[in-house]
């Protein structure tokens, strides 16, 4: 059973590679339907943490559950209940949009009827009827991004993990992409997102900021700006990276 109102829960979650602790006893939770930002510089440990939470990497110690399933013993169940999108989008350029939808829908285990209904709804909702039979490589980057997100949520997962999803696109397209995130959150899907854009951190309900494998800042954007006496999230990030008010969680 899922802990009340918590879709992700981690307690002293740790991953070691030899003597090196890539993730060092991190403790946090993510609420159902929340947009949760997971931030940190390259090498801070956020990618390793995400791999553990998505069932791709076994932890060394600690505890964690995702969608009610244990990251140590129920990794396959976790994979069935989540969606995932990376900066590379994970779609196939040599397939059409419709072929991509059918391919990933089949992987997610959707029935023919479910796939027909959801693919039709997705194409109509995104206004993609005119390009549904085009090869994906012929579709603009911004559209690929929206398509990848929609495919990642095609099976109505409890949680969708987004790994630097808006890298390389213009600010207007980034904002449009976040509108899709809001829609998913409003429908009850929990969104766990990593980003290096501090303005995007403002869009999250709560944030965890990692430094050297540990959580150095944790709370809502408003709470973090107050804690670090900062005007914006850029300033919070600078102060955390510098070690000001360093509060390891």
UniProtKB/TrEMBL annotation:
<keyword id="KW-0547">Nucleotide-binding</keyword>
<keyword id="KW-0067">ATP-binding</keyword>
<protein>
    <submittedName>
        <fullName>ABC transporter ATP-binding protein</fullName>
    </submittedName>
</protein>
<dbReference type="InterPro" id="IPR003439">
    <property type="entry name" value="ABC_transporter-like_ATP-bd"/>
</dbReference>
<dbReference type="GO" id="GO:0005524">
    <property type="term" value="F:ATP binding"/>
</dbReference>
<dbReference type="Pfam" id="PF00005">
    <property type="entry name" value="ABC_tran"/>
</dbReference>
<dbReference type="GO" id="GO:0016887">
    <property type="term" value="F:ATP hydrolysis activity"/>
</dbReference>
<dbReference type="InterPro" id="IPR003593">
    <property type="entry name" value="AAA+_ATPase"/>
</dbReference>
<feature type="domain" description="ABC transporter">
    <location>
        <begin position="8"/>
        <end position="237"/>
    </location>
</feature>
<dbReference type="InterPro" id="IPR027417">
    <property type="entry name" value="P-loop_NTPase"/>
</dbReference>
């Amino acid at each position: 059973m899922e802990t009340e109102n918590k879709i992700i829960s981690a307690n002293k979650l740790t991953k070691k590679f030899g003597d090196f602790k890539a993730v060092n006893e991190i403790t946090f939770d993510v609420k159902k339907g929340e947009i949760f930002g997971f931030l940190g510089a390259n090498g801070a440990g956020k990618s390793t943490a995400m791999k553990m939470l998505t069932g791709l990497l076994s932890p060394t110690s600690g505890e964690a559950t995702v969608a009610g399933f244990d990251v140590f013993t129920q990794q396959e169940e976790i994979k069935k209940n989540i969606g995932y999108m990376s900066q590379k989008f994970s779609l196939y350029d040599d397939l059409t949009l419709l072929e991509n939808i059918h391919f990933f829908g089949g992987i997610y285990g959707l029935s023919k009827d479910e796939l027909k209904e959801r693919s039709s709804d997705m194409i109509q909702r995104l206004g993609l009827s005119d390009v549904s039979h085009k090869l994906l490589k012929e579709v603009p980057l911004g559209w690929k991004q929206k398509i990848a997100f929609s495919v990642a949520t095609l099976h109505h997962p409890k949680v969708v993990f987004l790994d630097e999803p808006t890298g390389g696109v213009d600010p207007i397209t980034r904002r449009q992409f976040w509108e899709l995130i809001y829609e998913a959150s409003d429908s009850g899907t929990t969104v766990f997102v990593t980003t290096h854009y501090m303005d995007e951190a403002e869009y999250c309900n709560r944030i965890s900021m990692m430094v050297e494998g540990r959580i150095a800042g944790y709370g809502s954007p408003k709470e973090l700006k107050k804690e670090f006496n900062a005007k914006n999230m850029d300033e919070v990030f600078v102060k955390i990276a510098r070690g000001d008010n360093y509060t390891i969680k």
